[in-house]
Specification:
It is built from 14 helices and 16 strands. It has 2 domains: about 90 residues, Roll (Urease, subunit C, domain 1); about 290 residues, TIM Barrel (Alpha-Beta Barrel). The mean pLDDT is about 95. Helix 5 packs parallel to helix 6 and helix 11 packs antiparallel against helix 12. The strands form 4 sheets. Strands 3-2-1-4 form a 4-stranded mixed β-sheet, with no helix packed on it. A 4-stranded antiparallel β-sheet has the order 5-14-15-16, with no helix packed on it. Strands 6-7-8-9 form a 4-stranded parallel β-sheet, with helices on both faces. The protein is about 35% helix and about 20% strand. It is an alpha/beta fold. The longest helix has 17 residues. The structure holds zinc ion. The site of zinc ion has 6 residues, from loops.
Length: about 400
């Protein structure tokens, strides 16, 4: 493994999203001070960010690193969630721990290069013999990323995954219990089972919830079931697509329950824009959750990508700026709300300490060449500098040559 990167002592002349130009002191992996820029040149151990926008590093709240970058290999038909699951299951029995680890590492590296310093990944508990291959691959990856990137792992228990396999995954170091109760014949029963496993182990949950445009929603039930959990135990719900199609009165009740339970909501625009709406060729619904209603109520919101070039989403580039852009165009968030959802908001839902340009914060940053947040979200320049705990962990630069 390459040597751990050395921490920097100071960032100079950086433009913050609100427009101020500042110098940022770094010590012990945290921000020690943020002051108006002196305008001086950098010395050794410092980094001059003149002409760069300095952002809180993104966090990816919902990935599937075990599935990532498999589209070309599987060549699945395009289609909805059920079709994607069928394509994936047919392929997944051929994967080895090593092949999963290789793709997962490539996806993590891509995300880090784009500025993401923390990822929560789900992992399939695979059908057939050796159901824990994915868990072993991702637990190994977490070791490999140490000192460069944070990785949380959620066991994605399918409705037919036996309880003992979920427990075995937790024994191997998986952090959270997850699942997809909307795929079960009796969603509430499956959700109750998953929550009971988490409760018995004293761990948190991140459940794929109500990932469909219709059907009986379970989010309110989930919220009420976890409302008395200890404040520091993670509880979050991904997708929540059904909440985007609820009538206002029913939605209001759900929003209230989610807020009372401090349940984090994870919206995943790129994947749900792809997976939803195939049965609606006219006025195709967008398949996103009720973002504005949750935001207005003060619910914790995170934005993520979910899948990355696999049967569930053929496209994507592992870039939080892509997710932020979609939250603006498809979710109607402001630029500031959208970037917050993929960075500080995502960290909050992941239960990570705050990062960014204020004293005491974790020194995880993404600097992008540009002049404003709007420009950076719109153009997603490839020129980027990424800091993890105050140390330079990725740097990319592009050469443009144009006959104009
Ligand atoms: Zn997912």
């Amino acid at each position: 493994m390459p040597a751990l990167p050395q921490p920097l002592t100071r960032l100079l002349n950086a433009t913050l999203p609100e427009g101020r130009t500042v110098d940022v002191g770094l010590r012990g992996g945290r921000v020690s001070e943020v002051v108006e820029a002196e305008g001086r040149a950098a010395i050794e151990g410092e980094l001059d960010l003149k002409g760069w926008v300095l952002l809180t590093a993104p966090a990816e709240p919902h990935a599937h690193l075990d599935k990532a970058l498999s589209w070309d290999q599987i060549a699945p038909p395009m289609g909805d969630l059920r079709l994607a699951i069928d394509s994936w299951r047919a392929h997944s029995h051929t994967m080895t721990t090593e092949s999963i680890a290789e793709r997962a590492f490539a996806a993590a590296q891509l995300m880090l290069r784009n500025g993401t310093t923390a990822v929560r990944t789900h992992v399939d508990l695979l059908v057939g013999p050796q159901p824990l291959r994915g868990v072993q691959a991702l637990a190994g990856l977490r070791e490999r990323l140490q000192g460069r990137m944070d990785l949380q792992i959620t066991a994605l228990a399918a409705p037919d995954t036996p309880d003992e396999i979920v427990h075995a995954a937790l024994d191997l170091g998986v952090d959270l219990v997850g699942g997809a109760p909307h795929l079960a014949p009796d969603p509430l029963r499956d959700l109750t089972r998953l929550l009971a496993i988490a409760e018995s182990r004293g761990v948190g949950t991140d459940i794929h919830t109500d990932e469909g445009l219709d059907g009986e929603p379970t989010l309110t039930y989930y919220a009420k079931a976890v409302q008395d959990w200890p404040a520091d135990r993670i509880r979050s719900a991904g997708h929540c697509v059904r909440q985007g199609t609820l009538e206002p009165a029913e939605l209001a009740q759900t929003v209230e329950a989610v807020k009372a339970a401090d349940l984090g909501i994870i919206s995943l625009p790129i994947t749900n824009l792809y997976l939803q709406g195939w049965q609606h060729p006219v006025s195709t619904p967008r398949g996103l959750t009720a973002l504005r209603a949750f935001l207005d109520a003060g619910v914790k919101i995170a934005g993520g990508a979910d899948n990355l070039r696999d049967p569930f989403n053929p496209v994507g580039r592992g870039d939080a700026l892509e997710t932020a852009s979609l939250l603006v165009t498809a979710g109607h968030l402001t630029l500031t709300e959208a970037y917050h959802a993929v960075s500080a908001g995502a960290r909050e839902v992941l239960g990570l300490p705050p990062a960014g340009a204020f004293p005491g914060a974790v020194a995880d940053f993404l600097a992008v060449r540009g002049n404003s947040l709007g420009e950076v979200v719109a153009a997603a320049p490839a020129d980027r500098i990424v800091l993890y705990r105050g140390a330079l962990v990725a740097r990319s630069s592009v050469v443009h040559e144009t006959a104009l």
